[in-house]
Design goal:
7-stranded mixed beta sheet, binds o-succinylbenzoyl-N-coenzyme A, DHNA-CoA_synthase_MenB
């Protein structure tokens, strides 16, 4: 057992860290870690913390217990127009979580400890990497239970497993074993359940030894291809960040503050 420290208390999730690793655990085992609007709001809050905290370099997303990673939207609160939260407002705010996972410039690893079904499967698909235990089961249920995800749950799934397989997953709503999920490219690695956390932490520790800027740029590049103008904007934003780190950009600012013409001539003009 590792000594995780609680970062913040929530009702639906656990939020902990171990050095540079943050772990967000959906903690609703009675409903197989299905999410309600509040669950997503809490995960968004935790993701915002992970983004802002300079010591955190990688985020693990998992579910409590040994039955489920996440079984998608909580069917008990599914109403007309979305999942109904405590003030009666229908929401589909898991989509905001998908955007946060894509956008955070740090790797997010799904640690799949059981069923990843419906919106739960979409959640692991959206993560940068997936490590699953042998008991994990994957699948979409939308066309069976009256929902669908035409966002990353379709387009990015197809990038991972191919168009034909993605159509099979959505049209037939079957379940797939962890091994099948690995073979089709939806999972990076499958390990015995009692190895799951150790294996995931080892992957995190390896990532933490790598260059954070290089990781950030490669995540942006891999996202940009699918994310259109938004992906390009985030990639471009990081190009600006790199430029701001250069003496050349400092010269422009310094010249303005010193009320003189900038001397950009001294900077190299690379081929
Ligand atoms: C996970 C399954 C396969 C497990 O089956 P098993 O082992 O037979 O256990 P059960 O007895 O069925 O379940 C155990 C207990 O857990 C409760 N429960 C399970 N899943 C849910 C759930 N999603 N909501 C509420 N409760 C759940 C059971 O009721 C049971 O409780 P008790 O013991 O009290 O009876 C099996 O449980 C299963 O198939 N679950 C349902 C999976 C599902 O269909 N999920 C919803 C799919 N839809 C979405 O997720 C939509 C998501 C969404 O919001 C969205 C919207 C727009 C764009 C994108 C998305 C998106 O997809 O992300």
């Amino acid at each position: 057992m590792r000594n995780w420290t609680t970062i913040k208390q929530y009702e639906d999730i656990l939020f902990e860290r171990l050095g540079g690793i943050a772990k967000i655990t959906i903690n609703r085992p009675k409903v197989y870690n299905a999410f309600r609007p509040q669950t997503n709001m809490e995960m968004l809050d935790a993701m915002a913390y992970c983004r802002e905290c300079p010591e955190i370099g990688v985020v693990i997303l998992t579910g409590a217990g040994d039955k489920a990673f996440c079984s998608g939207g909580d069917q008990n609160v599914k109403g007309t127009g979305g999942y109904i939260d405590s003030n009666g407002v229908p929401r589909l705010n898991v989509l905001d979580l998908h955007k946060a996972i894509r956008s955070i410039p740090k790797p997010v690893i799904a640690m799949v400890n059981g069923y990843a079904i419906g919106g739960g499967n979409v959640l692991q698909v959206v993560c940068d990497l997936t490590i699953a235990s042998e008991n994990a089961r994957f699948g979409q249920t939308g066309p069976k239970v009256g929902s669908f995800d035409a966002g990353f749950g379709s387009s990015y799934l197809a990038r991972c497993v191919g168009q034909k397989k993605a159509r099979e997953i959505w049209f037939l709503c079957r379940q797939y074993t962890a091994q099948e999920a690995e073979e089709m490219g939806m999972v990076n690695k499958v390990v015995p359940f009692d190895r799951l956390e150790d294996e995931t932490v080892e992957w995190c520790e390896t990532i933490l030894k790598r260059s954070p800027m290089a990781i950030r740029m490669i995540k942006r590049a891999l996202n940009a291809e699918l994310d259109g103008q938004r992906g390009l904007m985030e990639f471009a934003g990081d190009a600006t960040l790199l430029y701001y780190l250069m003496d050349e950009a400092q010269e422009g600012k310094n010249a303005f503050l010193e009320k003189r013409d900038p001397d950009f001539g001294k900077f190299p003009k690379f081929p």
